[in-house]
Specification:
five-stranded antiparallel β-sheet; 49 strands; single chain; 652 residues
């Protein structure tokens, strides 16, 4: 019996062992404890196009893992390998790794998660990381302009997209560029397109150049597309010939305009001439600078009364070009100018005005012209004369230093390189001898305590210019310029003078004066008395009128300002006697004289006291007090007549 139990227990143990072994093998085959797991740890933004993703593979099944990496999308918030991905290849053990995603769109928001291929199925991280890339500028290369043999202007356009951006142009004779030029403007901000340019010089003729815009900000660098231009080829210059002027027997003036240097620097330019057609630089010629533009050439050593051919020339490294041929003939016979004398005017005792008209300069430019004068006939340049400009046309001459009451002879003259010629002779008489000026004194106005206004009128200067004028004043009669006086300009006519530094309440005498070369004369004497020291103004109150329940009209009259300006005036009122400007009042202008005041805001059926006021620098004074009674409001009564109700109103 015990044996049987032993065997039963043995068989049971064996069976249990077999069952447990089979379960272990099955569980191992199912791999319940080794599931592939991956996590997206972090995302680091490297630049506007690149991020670095940290991944952690912390468990792997026993399946083959042919690939792992990250998948990402700008629209799918749970990206899969069907979206864009960056793979790292097979993985055989758990590990941490960094995976770089490149060529992303600047300014975009992307969703990222890591994956492992577990056999043929992807295993994804449970978390998704987001990253918003910084913006980059946009750069556009535009066509070059202003292209010559040695220069060009590069053009472009940049939008900073909200990030401060510095801009240059890269250029060179190949795609390697090799040269840079700072753009104008150099720095770009904001979020709008900005036009750029840069001026290149020192280029090689007939050469292809590459260029592009380079925009740099803290988030990265952006390039515009490569663009090319070709510099021009060099040719001979283009030049035109200027018409000939200032022709004399031996000289002339001409020149030219170099309108294009042909792509090479113009090293010499000028005019060549000959008595034969088609002159060249082998003939007589001038040298008049270098470069493009207009130039002037002076021809000399010519023969009188001779036909000449001229043309402009300009030379660069390619050769010499000529302008069109122009011909002219030198003057035949030397001629003096032709001039006409102008009659004298504005005649005084010592001065007069004349002049002339050079109707022809003769065979040379008039270098001097004017008037000769003398008390003898036929005056010339050996005596008194004026110099009044040069060239042809009319001119005016001023004659000075003459003697009063004297007959003078005048002739215009004009001088060129040939000689001087004279116009027709004319005569005039200077005025009689000079006397002192004639004048009158103006009435005195604007009298204050320490000043007043006067002046005068000079009706004649006595034949000589009035050099000083004004008024003199004193507390004694017949004041002169040895005492107090003003200085008020020169010449004849009316003038105004300020009399200052006076004493108050004092009698003064004033006279106008005028001085010419003969002496000083005085006008009539005017007396006045200065004002007393300032006091209060004087003002009266106007009887009130136009009285209603709430308004009335009054006013006043400022009969004196007290010696200083009245700065405020009006009427004040109150239901109490002696109203002041502390209470209700009007403001009706400034200064002396009558004024009207409109009183408003009154109460019906009320007695009011009113009086005018006036204020100057001393203080405020009040006029006589008056009263007014405002009207009462109407009362209403009802009368019934024959069953008809009539309402009437009566005033109190």
């Amino acid at each position: 019996m015990k044996m049987k139990r032993f065997y039963n227990l043995f068989y049971l143990t064996v069976a249990l062992t077999v069952i447990l072994s089979m379960l272990f093998i099955a569980c191992k085959k199912l791999d319940f404890g080794t599931v592939t797991k991956i996590n997206t740890e972090s995302v680091t933004i490297i630049d506007a196009n690149t991020v670095k993703v940290a991944v952690n593979i912390f468990d792997l099944s026993e399946e083959a893992h042919a690939d792992y990496g990250v998948c990402y999308s700008v629209s799918n918030q749970k990206p899969t390998i069907e979206d864009t991905r960056t793979s790292k290849g097979a993985v055989e053990s758990i590990k941490k790794d960094s995976i770089t995603i490149q060529n992303l769109q600047p300014g975009s928001k992307i969703y990222i998660r890591s994956y492992v291929m577990d056999g043929n199925s992807p295993k994804y991280s449970s978390n998704v990381k987001e990253a918003t890339l910084p913006s980059l500028p946009s750069a556009k290369t535009l066509a070059a302009a202003g292209i010559t043999t040695v220069t060009a202007t590069l053009n472009g356009e940049v939008n900073a997209n909200g990030t401060a951006t510095s801009v240059i142009f890269e250029y060179g004779s190949s795609l390697t560029y090799g040269l840079t030029m700072i753009a104008n403007p150099e720095n770009v901000t904001g979020s709008t397109n900005t036009s750029l340019n840069a001026n290149l010089t020192g280029l090689q003729a007939n050469t292809i150049y590459h260029f592009r815009v380079k925009a740099t900000c803290q988030n990265g660098v952006v390039f515009g597309k490569d663009t090319t231009f070709t510099t021009s080829q060099i040719s001979v210059p283009a030049v035109t010939t200027t018409e000939v002027t200032n022709i004399t027997q031996t000289t002339a003036t001409t020149g030219g305009n170099v309108t294009s240097d042909g792509g090479g620097t113009v090293t010499v330019r000028g005019v060549c001439w000959s008595t034969s057609a088609n002159p060249t630089t082998a003939d007589s010629h001038t040298t008049d600078g270098s470069g493009t533009g207009i130039f002037t050439s002076d021809l000399s050593g010519l023969v009188a009364n001779t036909l000449y051919y001229i043309r402009a020339y300009s030379t660069n490294t390619i050769g010499t070009a000529y302008g069109e041929i122009v011909n002219f003939t030198t003057s035949v016979v030397p001629l003096t100018p032709t001039v006409i004398t102008t009659a004298a005017s504005l005649i005084t005792q010592t001065t007069a005005t004349s002049g002339g008209n050079v109707t022809s300069q003769g065979s040379a430019t008039v270098t001097a012209r004017g008037i000769c004068w003398s008390t003898s006939q036929n005056p010339d340049l050996s005596g008194s004369y004026s110099v009044d400009g040069s060239g042809a046309g009319t001119f005016t001459s001023f004659l000075a230093g003459l003697t009063a009451n004297t007959v003078y002879y005048i002739r215009a003259y004009a001088t060129n390189s040939v000689g001087s010629s004279y116009g027709n002779q004319l005569t005039f008489n200077t005025l009689n001898s000079i006397t002192v000026p004639i004048l009158s004194t103006s009435v005195v106005t604007n009298i204050t305590t320490n000043s007043a206004t006067s002046g005068g009128n000079i009706s004649s200067d006595g034949g000589a210019s009035v050099t000083v004028r004004g008024v003199c004043w004193s507390t004694s009669v017949n004041p002169t310029v040895s005492g107090s006086h003003s200085t008020d300009g020169t010449g004849t006519g009316s003038f105004t003078s300020s009399v200052t530094g006076l004493s108050d309440n004092t009698a003064y005498y004033v006279r106008a004066y005028a001085t010419n070369s003969i002496g000083t004369s005085y006008g009539n004497q005017v007396a006045f008395t200065t004002a007393s020291n300032p006091g209060y103004p004087s003002v009266t109150t106007t009887e009130p009128t136009n009285i209603t329940q709430t308004t009335a009209t009054s006013g006043g009259n400022v009969t004196s300002d007290g010696g200083t300006s009245v700065t405020a005036r009006g009427v004040c009122w109150s239901t109490n006697p002696n109203p002041t400007i502390i209470g209700s009042h009007t403001t009706n202008g400034t200064g002396t004289g009558s004024f009207i005041s409109n009183i408003i805001g009154l109460t019906s059926g009320t007695l009011y006291y009113i009086r005018s006021y006036a204020t100057n620098s001393v203080g405020t004074i009040y006029g006589n007090q008056l009263t007014l009674n405002t009207l009462t409001l109407p009362t209403v009564s009802t009368v019934t007549v024959s069953n008809i109700t009539q309402t009437t109103a009566s005033s109190g």
